[in-house]
Amino acid sequence: MCLAHPATTASTASTASNPVAVDAISMPLATCQGSTTRLRRKLWELEGRMHCPVIGTCLTNIELRNLANKHGNGHGKGRSDYWLHTFFVTNCQHKNPLALATFKFLERKYSATVRQFASAKSSEDLRQLWQQALDRGETAAALWATVSHGQCNEQLQEQAYETIHMLSHQIGAGQQADLKRLVIAEAELKQLKTESQQQHKKLQQQLLDKDQQLQALKTQLEQLQLANLQLQQAPQVECDEIEPLRQQNQQLQQRFEDSQSALQRTAEQRDHWQMTALTHQRKLDKIRAQHDQDMRTLEAAFGTRASASGCSDCGSADCTSCPDLCTNKVLLVGGLHRMVEQYRAVVERSNGQFSHHDGGKEDSRARLESMLAAADVIICAVDCVSHDAYYKLKRFCKQQNKRHIFMESSSLSSFASTVNTLAVKLEQESSAA
What is the pLDDT, as a whole number, of residue 279? Predict the structure, then answer.
């Protein structure tokens, strides 16, 4: 039979100052006695402090609310996300219907990763699988598959806890800057839509005017053809009347040829405007696709990496989870001018110094060599740089043995990935030294 499980003394003390948390903790679900030792740990068999990172990282707020409404006596209705998180952390420490339903949901959600981690025969094998999953960005799945594995020892559990803790700090540190860039990107997209609508309206009006001109010329041509036919069918007239008719016929023929030429020119001009409209539409589609990619990069910072400590800012000067450029001077040659501030934010948040040269579009080409000499690392966006700047950069880096990276795309996601890879190499070199 299931019995009500009272809140522990430590949990009550930690939530005494928060009335919402007290409500969540004061209503634990019924718990069931007894459990057997298995190769995998159940949710309620985890160490007490691991419930917070597991619930916060592996389950979204929507999933928690659905589980609470279905298996938690309807407690998910009208409650805040924090209350719901505390409610699950408290009640999943013991076996009860809610903890059992949550455990089954986690097993289904991350079944593929759990099966993959099942191959680990030792804690070292499990640690390697955990690190590989982190490198792929599969943080939530790796956390559940690791801490619930039978080979997860105290050292690996501590490592997982610290990793999730520091990831939450990194997200808090960059949240405000990412929100600002998101607002700027949305404003730019709105402006582009307005300009596109205005241009489309202008082109539509021009096409309408040309169609009206074309219709008028067709009407005039039909009239000329009818008059010419009437002249050809007219009865024979006196000889002194033939010459004026011949001259009139020649004039009509010339007007007919002029009308045909004007009609041809109008048709060509209409085709030109249609091609222009199609070109503008393709450019707009490309800009929208690039914007969507940048939006996904910015929103990636608000992904499923929930906070394990409740912190919103990283105050540690020796944070080891954030990318570290070791104060190196990073020069970006080329790239999109409207994205310079976003590029700068990525480098400076990674403990680097940022400078930019547009590859000769507006910046002086003579200034490029001095900037190349001053930089520690040079990144070149090959899709948005002049040929002259590209070859000058390549020759200089080869002669001076300067570290340089050629980036295929000027998108923010590509630049962020390049900076992250660079930071990893610098850290590896620093460790080797």
Answer: 86
Q: Report the C-alpha gap between 390 and 367 in whole angstroms.
A: 14
Handedness of CA 101, 106, 109, 110 (dihedral sign): negative
Strands (E), 269-384: 329-334, 353-357, 377-381
Q: Is 299 left (phi over 0), alpha (psi -120 to 50) or beta?
A: alpha
Task: Answer yes or no: do 148 and 286 share one domain.
Answer: no
Same domain for 167 and 276, yes or no, is no
Mean pLDDT score across all residues of the chain: 80
The whole-angstrom separation of Cα 64 and Cα 102 is 9
Q: What is the CATH number of the domain that holds 421?
A: 3.40.50.2300
Q: Say yes or no: 169 and 216 in one domain.
A: no
pTM of the model: 0.37
pLDDT bracket for residue 337 (50, 70, 90): confident
pLDDT at residue 221 is higher than 60 = yes
Co-location of 163 and 208 in the same domain:
no
3-state secondary structure of 363: coil
The answer to whether 395 and 388 have CB atoms below 8 angstroms apart is: no
pLDDT beyond 50 at 106: yes
Q: Determine contact, residues 290/381, Cβ cutoff 8 Å.
A: no
Q: Is residue 397 part of a domain?
A: yes
Q: What is the number of other CB atoms lying within 10 angstroms of the CB of residue 339?
A: 24
CB-based contacts of 428, cutoff 8 Å, min separation 6:
none
Cα 229 from Cα 226, distance rounded (Å) = 5
Write out the residue range of the structural domain in which residue 236 sits.
191-291
Are the C-beta atoms of 419 and 346 separated by less than 8 Å?
yes
Q: What is the arithmetic mean of pLDDT over 305-327? A: 53
